[in-house]
Automatic annotation (TrEMBL):
Keywords: Heme, Iron, Metal-binding, Monooxygenase, Oxidoreductase. This is Putative cytochrome P450. Pfam families: p450. Belongs to the cytochrome P450 family. It comes from Pleomassaria siparia CBS 279.74. CDD domains: CYP7_CYP8-like. InterPro entries: CYP450_monoxygenase_sec-met (IPR053007), Cyt_P450 (IPR001128), Cyt_P450_CS (IPR017972), Cyt_P450_E_grp-IV (IPR002403), Cyt_P450_sf (IPR036396). The keyword Protein biosynthesis does not apply. Heme binds at residue 437. The keyword DNA damage does not apply. Its cofactor is heme. One of its GO terms (molecular function) is monooxygenase activity.
């Protein structure tokens, strides 16, 4: 009996499996390629659109379709563009078939200009077919512990904040009141960030190395295009060599041992895979791009938005006043102390303003390669094509953000009882899923620190008027719209502080307070 019962069960299961296979096959057959958005100019129309409008071109195409994903044909290939947060979440789970590793390996080689041996180390096992070891596969994961809230991040934050405080003191006592805001921020944040990462022997403290780094960054497009880079990107290639050599000397002297847990993790990872010291040096020039390229533009836009809206400035000042402790100081003056930890926890208007700034100025895209024919929801994606999630496409969708999506509303992200908040996956400033930016806690602390120092201590007016964001300054490799590098401001210590012998101290008690900058952070908020 038992035997017959078992056979019956097996038969029923077999029939079910056949039916299921038939159903799945049918569902697959019903899958269609994402709808194609065509250009009015055949063949090269989309390429011209991308060159002219950069990432904003996808926004223009999005407005021609209501599909959650669409296809842009470009010379024998397709670029699939995601427009829906629901599909973003699915893509984030499909890390094997919609892969990041081949893209990183290609970009790392072109950006770093490493040796052929270095390149073969990077290329090893990028498809994961040899197991879960491979330079690219493990590289970003090694950095995560150093950048997660905890003692290593606190150590970096403290050095960064002390450097920002020094910059503010120098600004307050400077006889020059007119300055180029972008270049000032770029230099001061480069110094603050790199001391916190590299320690006392920071190679970027040498002005020649810092200048070379920004020269290299400015020529990145031609390095990525990679057509005769020694001719088409000569100055950027030379600058990269200079930065790489400075880092090589730094590592050869063992100076990283006095640096952060982050630089040590990066160095140990490269040694473990057998990279030469020369390649480690040149890789670090590339590593600085992630660390430096997006923070100063964010800080610029934050200050520009706050200072061009006097009502927002006043609201932010009121919040800073609530977290400032004042006590008697030297020479009859006062000492004002601000603990940066309290900004994330107790200044909702300032943090909401930062989120709105990031929403408006994000121009980055998450890029994936379709490594095998893949079904995404009801869409069939073909192997060899590229999948893009441009942040600006999601950040400007009125079905996600409301009719006032184009308006800068510094209170948009403020929570209030009964208020409907936007979907967290629609906010892509720091990416998401397996490539979520691990530097977001450091970067947000840094931007909030510089903004708070300004709000607390300085009045600032534009020379002329505040320049509007220029879409032409979006670069393919950065996440944040570049500011105008030639713009000047008049800056003074606040009238009420003038002539007073007050001093300011900025400190950080601990960074465990997680401020939700990505959907993934929501689980961490309020854990402690
Ligand atoms: C406001 C400043 C910053 C913004 C807007 C930003 C944004 C992003 C975004 C959108 C990604 C994901 C890219 C993708 O999906 O392909 C990313 C990745 C990354 N970011 Fe940031 N970032 C910032 C600052 C930083 C800082 C300061 C660091 C380091 C200290 C950093 C380290 C990284 C790294 C290592 C990755 C690669 C992660 C991976 O692929 O696993 N970022 N960032």
């Amino acid at each position: 009996m038992v035997q017959y019962g078992l056979l019956g069960t097996i038969g029923a299961v077999a029939l079910l499996l056949v039916a299921l296979r038939k159903f799945l096959k049918q569902s697959n057959d019903e899958c269609k390629e994402p709808p194609i958005v065509r250009s009015t100019i055949p063949l090269i129309g989309h390429i011209l659109g991308m060159i002219r409008y950069k990432v904003f071109y996808y926004q223009m195409l999005r407005d021609q379709t209501s599909a959650p994903i669409f296809s842009v044909p470009v010379i024998g290939k397709s670029i699939y563009v995601i427009t829906s947060p629901q599909l973003v979440s699915t893509v984030q789970r499909m890390t094997k078939t919609l892969a990041f590793e081949p893209i990183v390996a290609m970009a790392t080689q072109r950006v770093s200009g490493c040796s052929p041996q270095g390149n073969s180390i990077i290329q090893y096992n990028i498809d994961g077919s040899q197991g879960d070891r491979g330079y690219v596969i493990t590289f970003f994961k090694t950095m995560h512990p150093a950048l997660a809230p905890g003692p290593s991040l606190d150590a970096m934050n403290r050095i960064m904040i002390q450097n920002i405080a020094k910059s503010a003191d120098a600004l307050a006592t400077s006889p020059v009141n007119r300055l180029n805001l972008c270049k000032w921020l770029r230099h001061e944040l480069t110094i603050a960030t790199t001391y916190s990462v590299y320690g006392p022997a920071n190679p970027m403290a040498d002005a020649k190395v810092e200048d070379a780094f920004w020269e290299f960054e400015g020529g990145l497009m031609m390095l990525l295009v990679n057509v005769l880079p020694s001719i088409t990107a000569r100055r950027a290639s030379e600058a990269r060599i200079a930065v790489g050599k400075a880092f090589q000397r730094y590592f050869e002297k063992g100076e990283h041992l006095n640096g952060s847990a982050l630089v040590q993790a990066r160095y140990n990872h490269s040694r473990e895979y057998g990279l030469s010291m020369e390649d480690i040096g040149t890789f670090e020039a590339g590593g600085c791009l992630a660390t430096l390229a997006n923070t100063f533009p964010t800080a610029y836009w934050m200050l520009a938005y706050i200072y061009s809206h006097p009502d927002v400035l006043q609201e932010c000042r009121n919040e800073v006043a609530t977290i400032t402790t004042t006590k008697p100081g030297e020479d009859g003056g006062r000492l004002h102390v601000i603990d940066m930890t309290t900004i994330k926890a107790s200044c909702p208007v300032i943090t909401a303003t930062l989120q709105e700034v990031l929403r408006h100025t994000s121009v980055g895209s998450t890029v994936r390669e379709v490594v095998e024919d893949t079904t995404l929801d009801v869409y069939a994606l073909k192997k060899g094509n590229t999948l893009l999630t441009p942040a600006n496409v999601l950040h400007t969708d009125s079905s996600l953000w409301g009719a006032n999506t184009d308006t800068f509303d510094h209170r948009r992200f403020l929570r209030a009882p009964g208020k409907k908040m936007p979907s967290p996956t629609a906010f892509r400033a720091f990416g998401g899923g397996s490539t979520l930016c691990p530097g977001r806690h450091f970067a947000t602390t840094e931007v909030l620190a510089i903004a708070t120092v300004f709000i607390a201590r300085f009045d600032m007016l534009p020379v002329g008027s505040w320049p509007p964001p220029d879409r032409g300054n979006a670069q393919f490799w950065t996440q944040i719209l570049g500011p105008n590098l030639d713009f000047e401001v008049e800056i003074h210590e606040r009238k009420e502080l003038k002539g007073v012998k007050d001093k300011w101290a900025f400190q950080l008690s601990e960074s465990k307070v997680v401020f939700a900058m990505a959907a993934e952070d929501l689980n961490e908020v309020g854990k402690e």
